């Protein structure tokens, strides 16, 4: 089974990874796991003021920090994974990556902030659900 696990370094990511670890037999002997972190783009003015190398290094470092906890957890259980870092709107980019990669399942943690907060601020999970063809397992 091919599983996409978006990770932002939060406790919600930790819950999603724990779910995958505890229930990995449900996903086959050797699930193919992609850890994905999506960084929002730097504001245009800031990005233009910096060199491309500095901007790219920033994205790499921030992605590394966001994936670190999930990587340690999967490494301890000897679950193989591929690391992926993208730049863009997180909800849209996750759904697009899931579609392009033909994933069997997306497992993601949810902040569970409630309907009003989600309505006002938007929600990555809501965008993924609205735009993703693969099943999405939301872990809280």
Order of helices and strands: EHEHHEHEHHE
User: How many individual β-strands?
Assistant: 5
Shape: globular
Strand content: 15-25%
Keyword list:
5-stranded parallel sheet; 21% strand; 6 helices; Rossmann fold; 5 strands; 140 residues
How would you characterize the overall build of this protein?
- This protein has 140 residues and is an alpha/beta fold.
- It has a single domain (2-139), classed as HUPs (Rossmann fold), CATH 3.40.50.
- The chain has helices at 11-22, 44-49, 52-76, 90-100, 115-121, 124-131; strands at residues 2-6, 32-39, 81-87, 105-109, 136-139.
- The longest helix has 25 residues, at 52-76.
- It starts with a strand and ends with a strand.
SSE blueprint and pairings:
Layout lengths: L1 E5 L4 H12 L9 E8 L4 H6 L2 H25 L4 E7 L2 H11 L4 E5 L5 H7 L2 H8 L4 E4 L1
Helix pairs in contact: 1-3, 4-6
In short:
The chain has 140 residues and is of the alpha/beta class.
């Amino acid at each position: 089974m091919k599983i996409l696990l978006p990770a932002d370094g939060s406790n919600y990511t930790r819950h999603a990874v724990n779910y995958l670890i505890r229930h990995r037999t449900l996903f086959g002997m050797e699930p193919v796991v992609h850890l994905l972190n999506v960084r929002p783009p730097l504001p245009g003015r800031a990005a233009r003021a910096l060199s491309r190398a500095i901007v790219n290094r920033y994205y790499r470092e921030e992605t590394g920090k966001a994936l670190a906890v999930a990587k340690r957890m999967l490494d301890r259980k000897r679950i193989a994974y591929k690391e992926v870092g993208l730049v863009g709107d997180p909800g849209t980019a996750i759904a697009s990556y899931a579609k392009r990669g033909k994933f069997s399942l997306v497992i993601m943690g949810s902040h569970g902030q409630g309907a009003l907060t989600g309505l006002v601020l938007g929600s990555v999970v809501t965008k993924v659900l609205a735009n993703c063809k693969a099943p999405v397992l939301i872990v809280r």
